[in-house]
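Exercise 3.2. Students should predict the tertiary structure of the chain below and write it as structure tokens, then compare their answer with the key that follows.

Predict this chain's 3D structure.
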Amino acid sequence: MNRREVLLLLAGTAAVPDRLLAIGRTVHQRVRAGTLSALNPHQNETVATIAELIIPKTDTAGAREAGVPAFIDVMVADWGDDDQRKMFTAGLANVDERARGMFGREFIGCSAAQQTQILTDLDAELARLRDTKADTSKNFFNAMKWLTLTGYYTSEVGATTELHYRVVPGRYEPCYPLEP
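Answer key:
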């Protein structure tokens, strides 16, 4: 998926951009560097690796540099209910199970090509669910992609570099209150 496709996917949420940006600003404000709330260090590294494969560093920052892993940790801890947390952590465990079954090591120990193959398989499964109009709300990879995209495009680097968000008079404030 390239960044143009990502923007088209996000355009599906165009009816609620202010709400989405407000949530993103709130979550980015709550992120505390080096502190994990919902995920253990291994899970966090798995999230960071997957997010970086979804939005890699190119001539612009990737997901890691934009703080997406910490954003996802806060979202899982503070915004998800117990069922969503269980679904997300079970999905992370499933990624490791797939990696062990296919390559004999955990996901973060696999090569980039092997990691990409696992994510391609997960994306194909998600596409099949969408094609059959099945409920994708409980699909780990659907949640992971949504959290990655939301975390990236509501971060300072995503908003200013990718979306060309400009605040007049001129600085990015993720917690700036917007009046209707």
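Discussion points: Residues 37 and 114 are 29 Å apart (CA to CA). Confidence is low (pLDDT under 50) at residues 5-9.
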